[in-house]
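INFO batch 0412 | record 1 of 1 | parsing
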Amino acid sequence: MKEIKTFQQMYRDGHVNRREFLAAMGALGVTAATAGSFLTSASALAATPTRGGSVIFASNLHGPDDTLDPLLGTSTIDYTRANAGCNGLIQIWNDMSLHPELAEEWSVNSNATEYTFKIRQGVTFHDGHPLEAADVVWSMNRHIEDGSPSSIKSFFALVEEWKAVDKYTVKLTLSS
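INFO prediction complete | emitting tokens
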């Protein structure tokens, strides 16, 4: 236990990074799940995140039609890439409850044909461009425009219009 506390302090002091800490725990015979729990001290959780690095991901399904365009995705790896690099207006959690993501709040009219989304301010694209309602409308309209190659176009069959109400408000109108 003394060695674990020593490495915890070294991690808190910035002498070892997370990967080095987990490697040391493995060398001490501590399982990865247990080692990860040793990193959740208050000081570790309060630490400033380090940006950058890479993630290595493997999939058993890929090929020549792989795409980074979420509109064209058809395989597990395409969906994984899209979910890793793109956000939705809301999140649907495992218990089917709805939670804000790019939309900080939303409302629905009494017959569920109009949805109004308030877009979270301060969100930026990778190039620093701020997210605005017009960006959401552009993205969503790609699925419903004539000749759209969207792999999920049928999910949008009831959509009549996506409209930017103001700079940070989007309105979705459905036919029924």
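INFO post-check: DSSP finds six helices and six strands in the chain.
INFO record closed
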